[in-house]
Write a structure and sequence with these properties.
Elements lengths: L3 E8 L4 E3 L18 H4 L2 H6 L12 H10 L2 E7 H4 L24 E5 L7 E2 L5 E5 L3 H12 L3 E6 L1 H9 L5 E6 L8 E2 L11 E8 L4 E7 L3
Parallel strand pairs: 1-7, 1-8, 3-4, 3-7, 4-6
Antiparallel strand pairs: 2-9, 5-6, 8-11, 10-11
Length: about 220
């Protein structure tokens, strides 16, 4: 059965996954970019984002986790905050995401929003679909579009929290970075005492971060 997976989701030592004041200059919030430095250094990330001519980057444990997060994925779900800092109706706004004309997804991407918008077809096979029917509608549409492959839940924090509360996430890969943010959005807030039903199946560290991979019993 296809699964909903969260991969390479970085949090600080004090539990923050995003900083405050998201903007064009700070897409992950002030200070949060350093939570992801481990990923930016890997060969797989640099290749998938067209950096360093595809030949740079580090190999090893961190790179293996980045690659595993891309394996077997047929669709992605993300919140509007992850898609961009734009708020309100889309009318007259041609924002197409942070990733340029050829985003690194190369499959259908379902963006949660309160405002309808026509799909955006990008280079490389990425198509952004805008879902106004809520998290379960996005889940159903993504599962259908993935054609038997797994669906990746990209974020941001509020979106992951909603899917955790709905008990729809099957695999949760957290990356603990050795940094303190002090403010922003904490991943495990607003969960009504949860999350529940997860077991640790992998708990390893690299020189840069700690990887914790949790899975839930099959739905």
């Amino acid at each position: 059965m296809a699964r909903l997976r969260v991969h390479n989701f970085s949090v600080s030592l004090d539990g923050y996954a995003a900083g405050p004041d998201q903007s064009l200059e700070n897409p992950m919030g002030v200070g949060a970019l350093r939570l992801h430095e481990w990923a930016f250094a890997t060969r797989t990330f640099q290749q998938s984002h067209g950096l360093e001519g595809g030949s740079g980057g580090e190999e090893g444990i961190d790179d293996q986790f980045i690659a595993a997060g891309e394996t077997g994925i047929g669709a992605t779900i993300m919140g509007r905050n992850m898609f961009g800092p734009i708020r309100g109706p889309w009318d007259g706004n041609d924002w197409k995401g942070w990733w340029g004309e050829n985003p690194p997804f190369h499959h259908p991407v379902f963006v949660l929003t309160h405002f309808a918008r026509e799909p955006i077809v990008m280079d490389g096979g990425t198509v952004f679909h805008f879902v106004t029917g809520g998290i379960r509608d996005a889940f159903d549409r993504a599962m259908e579009a993935a054609q038997g492959k797994d669906v990746r839940l990209g974020g941001g924090v509020s979106t992951v929290q909603q899917y955790l509360r709905a008990e729809l996430i099957d695999e949760l890969h957290l990356v603990v970075a050795p940094s303190l943010l002090g403010r922003g959005e904490r991943l495990f807030d607003h969960l009504d005492g949860g999350p529940f039903g997860f077991s640790s199946v992998e708990f390893v560290s690299s020189r840069a971060v700690l990887h914790a991979r949790l899975t839930r019993a099959a739905r």
